[in-house]
Design brief:
Order of helices and strands: HHHHHHHH
Radius of gyration: 27 Å
Coiled coil: 194-255
Largest sheet: none
Protein name: DnaJ domain-containing protein
Helix content: over 70%
Number of helices: 8
Strand content: under 5%
Keywords: Coiled coil
Organism: Candidatus Nitrotoga arctica
InterPro entries: DnaJ_domain, J_dom_sf
Shape: elongated
Length: 259
């Protein structure tokens, strides 16, 4: 027996609700991946990354000193320029990392719950007009940034402001399902919103895949696997880099003596 329009509407509403929940879960997974990667990047920089920047600076100084000893050696001049550029990039990356606010040490269940509540209320795909979608998009950016800082209070404040916003008084009921709309129109609007949710899910999955394919994420996974086996790969690497720094300083002093 063919379902009635009312039955079809009920099914579509249920399917959309499930999809909306899946999108929110995916949003949370993406933001958690970003935050955990930022945690690792900060830890990696503090333990070993800064030593790489120092090595690049020493290499640039050695290359410059060697180029000064051989002004007619084109290869030496090119090498010195390349070393200076690498040192500049390393210093710039170090500065960017140091300038960023440190991510939370722990992503608590309460923080995740606050994010989920905010996203359920504010998600841009709940908007029915373009201005409202843009407003919600701006709010979700603030929620995401607060989550990446581990600032649960900031998220809860954004939720409270959103609820108390006079513009929200007109959204106490789902505008897609108000009584004076015909069933056909309700179905069309739900289909449209479901399409929006599916597109957002595809975007999130693509971004997650790109994040997991990044060098820093792969390094994070490799080091965390080694740590689970009881190793200390970053500690071992730090010792190795400290030894290399000592060797570079000796080499720089020896090169400088010949100038």
């Amino acid at each position: 027996m063919k379902p009635t329009l009312d039955q079809e509407l009920t099914r579509l509403v249920s399917d959309q609700a499930k999809l909306a929940e899946q999108v929110i879960s995916a949003e949370l997974e993406l933001e958690t991946a970003k935050t955990e990667t930022a945690q690792f990047q900060r830890r990696y920089y503090e333990m070993v990354g800064r030593f790489y920047a120092q090595l690049d600076e020493l290499d640039a100084q050695i290359a410059n000193a060697q180029a000064g000893l051989s002004p007619d050696d084109a290869a030496a001049q090119v090498h010195a320029q390349a070393a200076q550029e690498q040192a500049r990039k390393s210093a710039e990356e170090a500065g960017l990392i140091e300038a960023q606010p440190p991510p939370p040490l722990v992503i608590t269940p309460q923080l995740k719950q606050a994010f989920r509540r905010a996203a359920m209320m504010m998600h841009p795909d709940r908007a029915t007009t373009e201005p409202e979608r843009l407003r919600r998009h701006g709010l979700m950016i603030k929620v995401n940034l607060a989550y990446e800082r581990g600032d649960q209070q900031a998220i809860e404040k954004l939720v409270l402001e959103f609820i108390q916003d006079p513009a929200m008084q007109e959204e106490t009921e789902d505008p897609e399902l108000i009584a004076d709309q015909g069933v056909e129109l309700k179905i069309l609007k739900i289909i449209r919103r479901t399409g929006q949710l599916r597109r957002r899910m595809d975007e999130i999955q693509q971004e997650l895949q790109e994040k997991r394919q990044s060098d820093i994420y792969k390094l994070k996974a490799t080091i965390e696997r080694a740590e689970l086996r009881g190793g200390d790969p970053m500690g071992d690497l730090a010792e190795q880099l400290l030894q290399e720094l000592s060797e570079r300083r000796i080499r720089l002093e020896e090169t400088a003596k010949h100038e």
